[in-house]
């Protein structure tokens, strides 16, 4: 079983998305955050369950899509590192995730 570890930038971006949604619908924002943590928590047992991002076909990164969010992560032997969260409609640039 892998430990799911959130990086500070990923948490900050999730918070920014939730704050924006909360301007119109605080309940929806709360539900989104709960769903994100529920689904990423499952990565403990199933770390390869996320898809490989179409923009990064040969990378070590995977993603979980929970509209309107894309959650990017990579795994090592003991951890799942949640690295980046972005809104689905934004264009992913490989440099956002580093060069690995």
Physical arrangement of strands within the biggest beta sheet: 1-4-3-2
User: How many domains, as an integer?
Assistant: 1
CATH domain fold name: YaeB-like fold
Instruction: Please mark out the parts with pLDDT under 50 across 5 or more consecutive residues, or reply none.
Output: none
Question: Helical stretch count?
Answer: 2
Please report which band the strand proportion falls in: under 5%, 5-15%, 15-25%, 25-35%, 35-45% or over 45%. 25-35%
Task: Label the structural class.
Answer: alpha+beta
The assigned CATH architecture is 2-Layer Sandwich
DSSP strand count: 4
Q: Can you summarize the main beta sheet? A: 4 strands, mixed
CATH homologous superfamily assignment = RelE-like
Helix-strand pattern: EHHEEE
What share of the residues lie within helices?
25-40%
Description:
InterPro entries: RelE/ParE_toxin, RelE/ParE_toxin_dom_sf, TA_system_RelE-like_toxin. Belongs to the RelE toxin family. This is Plasmid stabilization system protein ParE. It holds the Pfam family ParE_toxin. The protein is an alpha+beta fold and 100 residues long. The chain has a single domain, classed as YaeB-like fold (2-Layer Sandwich), CATH 3.30.2310. Helix content is 31%, strand content 25%. It has 2 helices and 4 strands; from the N terminus they run βααβββ. It has helices at residues 8-22, 26-41; strands at residues 3-6, 62-66, 69-75, 79-87. Strands 1-4-3-2 form a 4-stranded mixed beta sheet. β2 and β3 form a beta hairpin.
């Amino acid at each position: 079983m892998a430990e799911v570890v959130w990086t500070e930038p990923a948490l900050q971006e999730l918070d920014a998305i939730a704050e924006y949604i909360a301007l119109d619908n605080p309940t929806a924002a709360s539900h989104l955050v709960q769903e994100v943590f529920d689904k990423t928590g499952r990565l403990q047992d199933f770390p390869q369950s996320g898809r490989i991002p179409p923009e990064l076909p040969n990378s070590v990164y995977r993603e979980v899509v929970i509209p309107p969010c894309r959650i990017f992560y990579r795994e090592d032997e003991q951890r799942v590192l949640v690295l980046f969260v972005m809104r689905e409609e934004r264009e992913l640039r490989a440099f956002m995730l580093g060069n690995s």
